[in-house]
Amino acid sequence: MIYRDKNELQRECAKILEIDGNEVRILDEDKLKNEFIDDLIFTAVFSPDPAAREAARWLIRRAGAALGILSASIQSLYEAMGRDEVKGFTVPAINIRGITYEVAQAIFRAMMKGKVGPVIFEIARSEIDYTSQRPVEYTAAVTAAAIKTGYRGPVFLQGDHFQISAKKFAVDAAKETQTVKNLIWEAIEAGFYNIDIDTSTLVDLSKPSVKEQQETNYSLAAELTTMIRDLEPEGVTISVGGEIGEVGGKNSTVEELQAYMDGYLEELKKRGESLIGISKISVQTGTTHGGVPLADGSVAKVNIDFDVLEKLSSVSRSAYGLAGAVQHGASTLPDEAFDRFPAVGTAEIHLATGFQNIIYDSPVFPKNLKKKMYEFMKTELKSEWKDKDTEEQFIYKTRKKGFGPFKLEMWHLPTDTLHKIGTELEKQFVFLFERLRMNNTQDIAEQYVKPVDVQLEIPASLKS
User: Fold this and answer.
1) What 3-state DSSP class applies to 414?
2) 256-267: pLDDT as tens digits
3) Per-domain boundaries in the chain
4) Which residues contact 185 (CB under 8 A, 6 or more apart)?
5) Which CATH superfamily is domain 69-359+416-448 in?
6) What is the rounded CA–CA span in Å between residue 323 and residue 314?
7) Is 174 exposed, middle or buried (0-12, 13-18, 19+ CB in 10 A)?
8) Which tens digit of pLDDT belongs to each residue from 176-186?
9) Minimal CA–CA distance to 53: which of 136, 171, 172, 125?
10) With contact defined as beta carbons under 8 Å apart, do 236 and 73 qualify?
11) Cα of 457 vs its chain's centroid, Å
């Protein structure tokens, strides 16, 4: 059910949740979990009344807090990894592009099965736009999924690739930088306490020295880190990530890592002696986002340079106290590759397109809806169709952009269809968590991560 206005929402809410100032008390947990949370999240996403959407999102987040479901930073755990106190697993960071409420439930079910601790829920700057999911909505959907499944504990929300566009930066550097700053502010307000800064697009390989090549990258990363430290809530140290090589470009080197980190730390020190820097570093080892589609739409095999990944992770920990290197563009890799990431000390791995593929390619995904979506892409996104691409390659590259325009239809798929897709996804999450050595890490997360309950001002629509 979608509540059409805030008054309708308030009447139903009174039977299940009691509002006391900025707090929520749960009167009927079973009804909240089994029925009302569905209505709340659909209202939060689809209600035509902005006040009802705002109220539903606040109720979800505060109900989650009442149950011990809190947005958290992974900073303290990554600091422990940087000290070599914790090792042996690679934290998965999962981008959810569509049917976020259902996909997040599948993740939480897999986590609870394996007693998995830190799993990051993330969304990139580009994904926010083409999937039509602002940070506050994404937070609500993930929190609602935690409530629905019975998960309790920290929820790690991350801004992935909060990236500077090199093209826009060249035209107006101040404007493009401010756009990213505005997004960071919006994400922190929504409970994203993990932010990956991506200024690697500004690396200039034409310059004579490696430090000069990385200079704009590390200088702007320090500027954005300073802003994050100014905005972070009291008691929270946001985990910030940096990046030395754009994914899809040339493989990163130790020299680049050292040039970036030395320059970054110098810049950060100028801005404040006690400022805490990044906790991890994203590198390029041979992957591309989404993989490389072949003429028939299948994905080309990618050879990751695990030696580079191991070396960069080791140097980042021993020399700079970071958790290690971060691997992007990995979800379409062959299954046998995943257990190598923890073996070489990879701190974090980003996974997205593989789960998108499971949704689209599921035998239960409605054929008529898929056909409608593909026709939309061929018509509305025709400008992105390169001359050398077959239709299969074009569809593979652009179908990620179907999640936004067809969001309503996908969220309203038959319950049985959503359940079967969720089961397929859950099976893959269980597999990946096992390969990444994430099972039985719940106690480790609890030892190092102490979430802070950041107060949220009750919206005006609920004050009455």
Assistant:
1) coil
2) 999 999 999 999
3) 6-67, 69-359+416-448
4) 231
5) Aldolase class I (3.20.20.70)
6) 9
7) exposed
8) 999 999 999 99
9) 136
10) yes
11) 25
